[in-house]
Design goal:
- Helix content is 48%, strand content 9%.
- By secondary structure, the chain is α+β, with helices and mostly antiparallel strands.
- The protein folds into 3 domains: 185 residues, no CATH class; 295 residues, Cytochrome P450 (Cytochrome p450); 29 residues, no CATH class.
- The strands form 4 sheets. Strands 1-2-7-4 form a 4-stranded mixed β-sheet, with helices on both faces.
- The protein is globular.
- The two termini are 44 Å apart.
- The structure holds protoporphyrin IX containing FE.
- The site of protoporphyrin IX containing FE has 26 residues, from helix 13, helix 14 and helix 19.
- This is Cytochrome P450 family 27 subfamily A member 2.
- Its cofactor is heme.
- Belongs to the cytochrome P450 family.
């Protein structure tokens, strides 16, 4: 039970702030040249620097070549594919310079592992000076994305316990199941309104609302009604702002400061952030007012994540505001796009869909709502999500700025402050890591059942990928804070959709390719037919 007078806050739920613990992955498969060095002895490294090659020795495209690739060859919104093209041209490590960017790209799992292993105690992802400028402009506190080193760690340590701990996350299953219930109603409503009484014409758009409602339900333990017939205006405003912000984010960084008064990008970026922050603040204020009212009536206030953050006394109120905004932002188009792609492939792969629905129905007969225990008995469901994330990693290229250490990669030495681009898309589409890498084959994640397996042993190399060739949520202390929640959301939504519907593509539906808009998203709407199962 929690109250929200200052005294009650201090007294109740003074949860100890746990340190973020890195997920353990098997040691990287490193060759003799690529040996991991976690805590580099910087002095020793510096003395080696003279003997090693430097960033200037790296191959890479000139500015004009990059412009050609982006704007003539059309890779501006296909930067995930450009990773593979450049890897073939320049090898596994290359340099790109473009506007203010000077980046070292690494595209093998061994090199990605090496960068991560040298990331230090407080890993930094990328230059987000424009996010920081926005916060400064509005006099707002820094959140996870912008806070430096120990400050980031303090915020992150406050978030982790109730977001990432395996014992804590199942507590959110009942409310997520309610949101999934709304999603099912929404699908039913849309299909019944469609011309053929079966089609939902833009599945991703519906799932954005689902993602927003799901994260809000955990943060605020309240239902916003994002999947009702009448969508709340603020929900649409938030979703539109996510789209704008992510679309113009890189462009804002690219153009010099002086252009901000002339070009529209900075203005749009600021407006989008105003909307994101404004909607989050309205929701927080509303919920705090409700909690205060509950407390003054002597009613218990418990369970929700916002209450936990406020009562932990680790974050200031303005830090809570920005952090909640970031969590909402993280929740909108990550799970939703992954679910859209999963449904897209299941609709086209009858065998996989039958197998999944058989698994779900055998664990939860008669459309019983799955619990988290039930999910643990659905390996194929998890394999479908993994395979979807492998084909369409939401974050196709991640970043690390070596802010604490100099970094050694094979024969190369890089000074502190080097920006690395970790080419995840290229790594998880690499035939050397994944046989038939462009195909949707969930079985590759089921050890004993990989295609070609004999007596329970998979075909050689089928699943023997390097652990860093598939890290869709990142790895280490800076990995995705929403991972457990995201997985649970996706498992519950997909299993229940399978209980209720057979999913089919629209007749003559086009092939949908992904495109990059900071995150990897479908380039066209995904239309699906939902046919009720008997
Ligand atoms: C399919 C679902 C998702 C995927 C694949 C995904 C992936 C990622 C990745 C790759 C990162 C960067 C990790 C790193 O730098 O090592 C990240 C960070 C983050 N994610 Fe997620 N994410 C997902 C869902 C979510 C959800 C649902 C939330 C919110 C509840 C969320 C909140 C965040 C936040 C706040 C960060 C920044 C963490 C930090 O900087 O400390 N994500 N995510």
């Amino acid at each position: 039970m929690m109250g929200f007078s200052a005294a009650a806050r201090r007294a109740l739920l003074r949860l100890s702030v746990l340190c973020a613990r890195p997920r353990t992955l098997p040691a990287a498969r490193a060759g003799p040249e690529l040996r991991p060095r976690r805590n580099l002895n910087v002095q020793a490294t510096s003395s080696k620097a003279g003997k090693l090659k430097s960033i200037d020795d790296l191959p890479g495209p000139s500015l004009s070549t990059t412009l050609y690739w982006l704007f003539v060859k059309g890779y501006a919104d296909k930067s995930h594919l450009l990773q593979g093209v450049q890897r073939r041209l320049y090898g596994p490590i290359w340099r790109s310079r473009f506007g203010p960017f000077d980046i070292v790209n690494v595209a093998t799992p061994e090199l990605i592992a090496l960068v991560i292993q040298q990331e230090g105690r407080y890993p930094r992802r990328a230059d987000l000076s424009h996010w920081q400028e926005y916060l400064d402009l509005r006099g707002l506190a820094y959140g996870l994305h912008v806070s430096p080193g120990p400050e980031w760690y303090r915020i992150r340590s406050a978030l982790n316990p109730k977001m990432l701990k395996l014992q804590e996350v199942p507590a959110y299953a009942p409310i997520i199941n309610q949101v999934v219930g709304d999603l099912l109603h929404r699908v039913e409503f849309l299909r019944s309104r469609s011309q053929d009484q079966a089609t939902v014409s833009d599945m991703a758009a519906e799932l954005y609302k689902f993602g927003f409602e799901a994260v809000s339900s955990i943060l605020f333990e309240t239902r916003l009604g994002c999947l009702q017939e009448e969508i709340p205006r603020d929900t649409l405003r938030f979703i539109a702002a996510v789209n704008t912000m992510l679309t113009v984010s890189d462009t804002v960084l690219l153009f010099p400061h002086w252009s901000r008064g002339v070009l529209p990008f900075w203005k749009r970026f600021v407006q989008a952030w105003d909307d994101l922050y404004g909607v989050a603040q309205t929701l927080i204020d509303r919920r705090i007012a409700e909690m205060d009212a509950q407390v003054s009536c002597g009613e218990p206030v418990e369970g929700m994540y916002l209450a936990y953050l406020l009562s932990s006394n680790t974050l200031s109120r303005t830090e809570v505001n920005i952090t909640v905004t970031e969590l909402l932002l993280g929740g909108v188009d990550t799970t939703s796009n992954t679910l859209s792609w999963a449904l897209y492939h299941l609709a086209r792969d009858r065998r996989a869909q039958d197998r999944l629905s058989t698994e779900v129905n055998s664990v939860c007969p008669d459309r019983r709502e799955p619990t988290t225990d039930d999910l643990s008995r659905m390996p194929y469901l998890k394999a479908v999500i993994k395979e979807t994330l492998r084909l369409y990693p939401v974050v196709p290229g991640n970043g690390r700025v070596s802010s604490e250490n100099e970094v050694v990669l094979g024969n190369y030495w890089f000074p502190k402050g080097t920006q690395f681009h970790l080419c995840h898309y290229s790594a998880c589409h690499d035939e050397a890591e994944f046989v038939d890498a462009e195909l949707f084959v969930p079985e590759r994640w089921l050890r004993s059942e990989a295609p070609g397996s004999v007596c329970g042993r998979a075909a050689p190399n089928f699943y023997q990928h390097h652990p860093y060739s598939f890290i869709p949520f990142g790895v280490g202390v800076r990995a995705c804070v929403g991972r457990r929640v995201a997985e649970m959301e996706m498992y519950l939504a997909l299993s229940r959709l399978m209980q209720h519907y057979e999913v089919q593509p629209e007749p003559g539906a086009p092939v949908v390719e992904p495109k990059t808009r900071t995150l990897l998203i479908p380039a066209k709407p995904i239309a699906l037919r939902f046919l009720p199962r008997a």
